[in-house]
TrEMBL record:
InterPro entries: Transpos_IS110, Transposase_20. This is IS110 family transposase. The lineage of its organism: Bacteria, Pseudomonadati, Pseudomonadota, Alphaproteobacteria, Rhodobacterales. It comes from Antarcticimicrobium sediminis. PANTHER family: TRANSPOSASE, TRANSPOSASE FOR INSERTION SEQUENCE ELEMENT IS1111A. Residues 1-21 are annotated as: Disordered.
């Protein structure tokens, strides 16, 4: 059945990910593991109950801080060593809200950036609304699926971009005036930000924001 589908549908092969991006994605996963572990220790700190336990937790948090800082340097070195990643990083970092962690996440977890149109790249990141229908019933369109790490990174970037990028400020203000919920506005801003970044990498130039 799968072979028949491949013959009938206009499918294009997915190119293998470059070694540099695979390496970058691996270090990003390790960084996230440390961040989650540090977050858990910080939560445990509130219920330590004993000074000795508190000191032990604090020493572990400090260890995670050092390891995360070390990984940040390694991630930056991987990007700097690749001409393609370095050039893409130069372009993306000019956009307000695209800090080092968001930048590395986009480069490592979204290699399709610049290779897909605006609708497909938004869907891949889990930022495109999809219909919810069954027979004659039609529900509200919602976002679902996609790459959670990329979506979360774009949410963080959109929080800053909607205060500094004129196009996104205008989008935010229009949606607020229309009575849209804050989460809906954030999703729309993150999606539009991704469209801007996608175009920048595709055309290899900064877009007037």
């Amino acid at each position: 059945m799968l072979a028949t589908m491949g013959q009938c549908m206009p499918l294009s092969p997915t190119p293998p990910q470059e070694p540099e991006r695979r390496k970058l994605a691996g270090f990003l996963r390790r960084r996230k593991q440390f961040v989650e572990a540090r977050k858990a220790e910080k939560l445990r700190r509130h219920s330590a109950g004993h000074p000795e336990i508190l000191r032990d937790i604090d020493s572990l948090i400090a260890l995670f801080d050092r390891r995360i800082a070390k990984l940040d340097k390694r991630i930056a070195a991987i990007i700097a060593a690749s001409p393609q990643l370095k050039e893409q990083a130069r372009l993306l970092s000019q956009v307000p809200g695209i800090g080092p962690t968001v930048l590395a996440t986009l480069l490592g977890e979204l290699p399709e950036l610049a290779h897909l149109d605006r609708r497909r790249i938004a869907s891949l990141a889990g930022l495109a609304p999809h219909a919810r229908e069954s027979g004659t019933w039609k529900g509200a369109r919602r976002i679902w699926g996609g790459r959670r790490k990329v979506r979360e990174a774009l949410y963080i970037a959109a929080l800053t971009a909607t205060r500094r990028v004129p196009a996104l400020i205008a989008l935010r203000d229009r949606m607020r005036a229309a009575g849209k919920a804050p989460k809906t506005i954030l999703i729309a801003a993150a999606r539009q930000l991704l469209v801007i970044l996608n175009a920048m990498i595709r055309h290899r130039q900064t877009i007037r924001l």
